[in-house]
Amino acid sequence: MKKGRGSEAVKAMSVKETQVNILIGALLLNGFFGVVGFFVVEDYFPYLGGILFGVIIALLNFRLLFLTLDRAVKMPPAKAQAYATSRYFIRYVITGVVVYVSIRAQHINVLGTILGLISLKLVIFKTQLFNSKAYFKNIFKRKEEK
To answer: What's the CA dihedral at 9, 11, 13, 16 to 10 degrees?
Structure first.
């Protein structure tokens, strides 16, 4: 086995683990949103349907982003930029269509859909920001100590 292949296997496993951790975090956060919505929202099932609709599309967009970046890093810079930009607009249009459908459909709550769509971003934000000890040390460091 070549040295390069081993490092690719470790990197691929790390990416896969990260994706699974984000998926689990998104499911837990949306479960929390669902429980809170049970007590807060008057019409619960459309709200729950909106969360489900939003999180499925958010996960799809997350997977499309991974595939886009995985393919773009193997391209020349100019072609990669054009490819990544076109895929960005496709994901943006998908999100716009989802919000539009959520607004128009009576059986899907818009608030639930938006919570589902942003839940993945919140999980990624929490995972990357709050797991860094250096970040918190810098926040609480006094100006005089710098």
So the answer is: -140
Residue with tokens 């975090």: 25
Tokens read off for 85: 């930009």
Give the SS3 label for residue 50: helix
Contact of 143 with 84, CB cutoff 8 Å: no
Whether the Cβ atoms of residue 113 and residue 53 lie closer than 8 Å to each other: yes
- Give yes or no for a contact between 108 and 51, defined as CB atoms under 8 angstroms apart: no
Dump pLDDT digits (tens) for 96-145: 999 999 999 999 999 999 999 999 889 888 877 776 666 667 767 766 65
The structure tokens 């919000």 sit at 99
Q: What's the CA gap between 109 and 50, in Å, rounded?
A: 5
Q: Which two tokens stand for residue 49?
A: 């349907």
Q: Which amino acid is at 75?
A: M
- C-alpha 83/C-alpha 75 separation (Å) is 9
- Cβ contact 108:53 at 8 Å: yes
Residue 98 tokens read as 């989802």
Q: How far apart are CA 67 and CA 71, in angstroms?
A: 6
